[in-house]
């Protein structure tokens, strides 16, 4: 496996891309066509479903920024990493751990998210 950190960093960039065209381009370049995202609160399937899910989060939390909060751990075709979401320069309101599977071409096949911190 090549270093998966750039794939994960592109994934984080998708969550921060507020221009719909830029976000769709990032999704297409980072996710397999049949990619799927799942966490306890939402899911998205395929490029359109993942894009719509992220757009919904951005609408609910306008101006929030997602960042990776630790190193990317990987083996075989699996990755895991921690992240946080909140206003720039402020304490994050949401944080969690994601576990992903990489497709043969190096793009994301799936992400399963675990939420460690959510707003009340």
From TrEMBL:
<dbReference type="InterPro" id="IPR032710">
    <property type="entry name" value="NTF2-like_dom_sf"/>
</dbReference>
<dbReference type="Pfam" id="PF12680">
    <property type="entry name" value="SnoaL_2"/>
</dbReference>
<protein>
    <recommendedName>
        <fullName>SnoaL-like domain-containing protein</fullName>
    </recommendedName>
</protein>
<dbReference type="InterPro" id="IPR037401">
    <property type="entry name" value="SnoaL-like"/>
</dbReference>
<feature type="domain" description="SnoaL-like">
    <location>
        <begin position="8"/>
        <end position="110"/>
    </location>
</feature>
């Amino acid at each position: 496996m090549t270093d998966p950190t750039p794939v994960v960093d592109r994934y984080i960039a998708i969550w921060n891309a507020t221009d719909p065209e830029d976000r769709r381009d990032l999704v297409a370049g980072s996710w397999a066509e049949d990619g799927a995202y799942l966490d306890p609160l939402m899911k998205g399937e395929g490029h359109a479903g993942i894009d719509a899910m992220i757009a919904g989060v951005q609408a609910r939390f306008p101006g929030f920024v997602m960042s990776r909060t630790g190193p990317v751990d990987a083996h075989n075709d699996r990755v895991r990493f921690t992240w946080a979401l909140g206003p720039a320069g402020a304490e994050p309101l949401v944080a969690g751990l994601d576990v992903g599977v990489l497709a043969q071409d190096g793009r994301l096949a799936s992400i399963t998210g675990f939420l460690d911190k959510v707003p009340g």
